[in-house]
Structure formats: C-alpha cells, structure tokens
Structure prediction request, 133 residues.
Amino acid sequence: MIQNSNFLTALQLQEQYKSSQNKPASQSTGDGLSFQDVLLKQSENKGSDVSLKFSKHASVRLEQRGISLTSSQMKRLEDATNKASQKGIRDSLVIVDELAFIVNVPNQTVVTALNSTETNENVFTNIDGAVFM
Prediction:
C-alpha cells in the first residue's frame, strides 16, 4: 500500500469539486468589480457607438494647429471609424470637412490630425483604408 499525502483520494477530490461548484465564479478585480461584471460591461459596450480616444500626439497636434471639433464633426469621425472597423481597416485616413485624421481602428485611437493647410503634399503613408465623411 502506497501512502503519499500529496495525492487526494477519490472522495477528497469529489468533496473538493462539490465545494468549488458552490462558490461564486466571480473574483474581484483591483477596482472592486468582479471578472463577470467586467465581462458583462464589455459585452454591453460592443454594440454601442465607437468612443474614440486621442493619443497624446494627436492632442498636441490639435492644440498646435488650432483644431477644435464640433459635436457633429466628432460624431462623423466616430461613424467613419465604425465603418472602417466593419470593413476590416486597421489604420484609416478619415476626412471630415477640411480636416484629416489618421485613426488606429482596432484601438479606436486618433493618432494624428491635420487641417487643410497641412495636407499640401496630399501623401498619407501607413494606412490601409480611407473614409470620407
């Protein structure tokens, strides 16, 4: 007969399994939300409109170039990003009125912004799609 305290008997395994089934599956994250809460929140947000972020670089460019977006322009920029996502575009040139934006679509992040005076060369690199709004 082999005795080793590192191995559990079938009865001990069964009891351990039963006790784990009675415990809630959610574990708390650092901010007090359970994993299940975070997962539900993320799945609810999947169907909602795109919420764009602006990279630090894009924020600086907007300020330097005196570009301010109206709520209508921001909505069209978000719509364009959503359309680009539906088409599988990763890095998109988005034209809204006389403004040009480079958007990293999977991260929903505006990488840079230009107005019509900065687009004098009309050359945009490292993009795989364009959306005109």
